[in-house]
């Protein structure tokens, strides 16, 4: 299975080879051809009706930009330069006006630090180097070693996390921001496996997001080498913001719940992530923590205050 990478680019001048590689109709056509299957320079030249020398020049620019990879392969008594797609996504961060600094508290919660759960198979947990207990046995969610889990998954149910509330008397809550990498949970992997994932803070339902699937198109960028190819690889980074105007998921309005609608507890916040039995799409949940998936962090819970 080919391994793709995600390119995180910016306006730094070091990314000029990438932008130059994209600035050509011929090179874009080469990317479209290689997306179907790897090809050698000779076959690309024949398909494009160009000379091998010109195609070689284009291939070198794509390779320098990190968009394709090449390798020499012995085949039919000769040596062929086989070209393959190397990148699946490109994210470009443009310069932005500095945000006004705000006071906040941030807590990073490892995925295994839940305090309550109700999970149903398929389910399981794993640390950075081994599976905890056996697959599809919810009893192992009680295992003390779960505190070291970096990934967990279940077919339906919920996990609940208690997070310290560091706000002081007299301070006013302005916004809550929660981010995590999540996806569906199918037996094995299924690119199209819908799952309605619900989010609650302090027993207040914020809304739900429908995960499109349980990823399996290439390995996660951070997924350990020992982890099988045939199960969960990476998810989607989702950012929830509960503001004074409502609740937003990745900038899109999720519900009308505001920070004033969240009951305050003096000592803690309670975050629940759930796939309920009554959901339209009961496709399970996978939570990826540090060292798994594509984003190297655990569940982040941030509160802004003044």
From TrEMBL:
Keyword Lyase in record: no
Gene3D superfamilies, A to Z: Winged helix-like DNA-binding domain superfamily/Winged helix DNA-binding domain
Swiss-Prot/TrEMBL keywords: DNA-binding
Any single Pfam family the record assigns to this protein: HTH_5
InterPro entries: ArsR-like_HTH, HTH_ArsR_DNA-bd_dom, WH-like_DNA-bd_sf, WH_DNA-bd_sf
Keyword Zinc-finger assigned: no
SUPFAM superfamilies in the cross-refs: Winged helix' DNA-binding domain (SSF46785)
Entry protein name: ArsR/SmtB family transcription factor
Annotated source species: Paenibacillus aestuarii
């Amino acid at each position: 299975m080919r391994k793709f990478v995600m390119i995180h680019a910016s306006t730094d001048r070091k990314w000029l080879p990438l932008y130059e590689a994209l600035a050509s109709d011929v090179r874009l056509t080469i990317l479209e051809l290689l997306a179907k299957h790897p090809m050698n320079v000779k076959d690309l030249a024949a398909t494009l009706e160009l000379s091998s020398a010109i195609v070689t020049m284009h291939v070198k620019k794509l390779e320098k930009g990190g968009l394709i990879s090449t390798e020499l392969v012995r085949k039919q008594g000769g040596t062929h330069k086989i070209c393959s797609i190397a990148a699946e996504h490109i994210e470009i961060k443009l310069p932005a006006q500095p945000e006004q600094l705000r006071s906040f508290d941030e807590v990073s919660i490892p995925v295994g630090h839940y305090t309550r759960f109700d999970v149903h198979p398929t389910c399981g947990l794993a640390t950075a180097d081994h599976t905890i207990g056996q697959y599809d046995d919810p009893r192992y969610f009680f295992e003390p070693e779960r505190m070291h889990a970096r990934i967990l998954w279940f077919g339906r149910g919920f996990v609940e996390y208690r997070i310290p509330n560091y706000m002081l008397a007299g301070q006013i809550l302005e916004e809550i921001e929660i981010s995590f990498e999540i996806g569906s949970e199918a037996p094995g992997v299924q690119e199209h496996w819908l799952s309605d994932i619900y989010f609650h803070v302090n027993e207040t339902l914020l809304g739900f997001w429908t995960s499109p699937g349980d990823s399996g198109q290439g390995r996660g960028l951070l997924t350990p080498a020992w982890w099988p190819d045939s199960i969960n690889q990476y998810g989607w980074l989702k950012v929830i913001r509960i503001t004074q105007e409502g609740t937003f998921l990745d900038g899109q309005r999720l519900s009308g719940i505001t920070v004033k609608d969240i009951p305050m507890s003096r000592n803690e916040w309670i975050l629940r992530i759930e796939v309920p039995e009554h959901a339209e799409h009961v496709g399970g949940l996978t939570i990826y923590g540090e060292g798994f998936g594509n984003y190297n962090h655990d569940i982040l819970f941030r509160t802004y205050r003044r």
